[in-house]
Amino acid sequence: MTALPSLDEDMEQGLTEATTVDGLAGPAVRRARAWLSRAAEPGSVAFWRFVEDAGAVEAVRRLRSGRAPDAVRALVGARAGQDASLEDLLRVERCGARLVVPEDDEWPAHLLHCLTLATSEEPDDPRHHSPRTTAPVPPLALWVRGPARLDELADRSVAIVGARASTSYGEHVAGELGHQLGERGWTVVSGGAFGIDAAAHRGALAADAPTVAVLACGVDRVYPSAHGALFHRIAESGLLVSEWPPGAAPHKHRFLVRNRLIAAMTRGTVVVEAAARSGAQATARRAQKLGRQVMVVPGPVTSAMSVGCHELLRDVELGAVLVADARHVVETVGRLGEDLADPPERPTGARDGLSDVAVRVLDACPVRSGVGPERLARVAGCDVLDVLRVLPVLELADLVERTDAGWRLTPPPKPAAGAGRG
């Protein structure tokens, strides 16, 4: 049995290999990024810049040999001497997953470029970098579980986020939004959590549309544990996505880091319900800083779960748009001139389309006893000839009727015999 090459041997050989072959990263590059995804926690500006400048393979070689800058080595610590890259790649393969890296055609480069631009504005001095949990750093790699292509699903996608402790109103709205967006060919992206996230995912699945859950743990783990069936359904047609390698636990700080991907990897973020202080609010503000449109569903002013939504709408600098359904969402983030919302249907009545004179004559008609055209002309403030011209129109519309005494309003229909009994 042939022994598998060690990580260091693969990295040495990778220096002479092509970075990309037929739209896929070379084996050494993929293994290097698999190792890097476990070596350091995502979100560090200094670590991302180090890998970007050196390249994935050379970055691993320097970290393994102790030649990386001290600040970068400190982020890796004891993990520099460990290697589970091959095991990780085999483990995700067994559960129907894969590692997608920036060198692959499948990488959603055009959407994630906003993170690259935001990171370029970070200061050179590491002491002044944004905290890791809020820094707008691009991912080094993404572990992806499901049959769909990540770039294709992300191309027309909308994030729906909100409270875990949601109300029945919020879950209904999120489910309807997910279903309507799915019917229109848009991908719903959320975090797979209880409440609004789960309702949005289920709404999309009910429309037989793919949906994406961005996780704060390995794609082979289910968190929350009650969502095993939901995650299985998502992975059948959509995607489970994570920056963390297989087996990674859902530590609290990882949810904060994860939120930037939900904001960046979509064309806009919809907040359905949010308390006065919530992760959904934070995700919305991160989306705005990345140049993404923020949309908000209003709620009852008496609901604590809508306080955060209303605060977002009141923030003039945020530029949030009020949305009530998928038509509003698609018009806001869709392609100019193509994704326009139809005007809402309004009830029509017999008065619609009447001329000004006809409306005035109609208002002048009495309810009970009829009157002549001369009397209608005086009350309506018009000529008798105008009255005689519009009365037949009003009669055809069943708005007025002629009696022996003159013209009056048509009485409302009488209720059928026995109506209202029982």
Automatic annotation (TrEMBL):
Gene Ontology BP term (one): DNA-mediated transformation
All copies of domain Smf/DprA SLOG, residue ranges: 134-332
Similarity annotation: Belongs to the DprA/Smf family.
UniProt protein name: DNA protecting protein DprA
Organism: Geodermatophilus obscurus (strain ATCC 25078 / DSM 43160 / JCM 3152 / CCUG 61914 / KCC A-0152 / KCTC 9177 / NBRC 13315 / NRRL B-3577 / G-20)
Lineage: Bacteria, Bacillati, Actinomycetota, Actinomycetes, Geodermatophilales
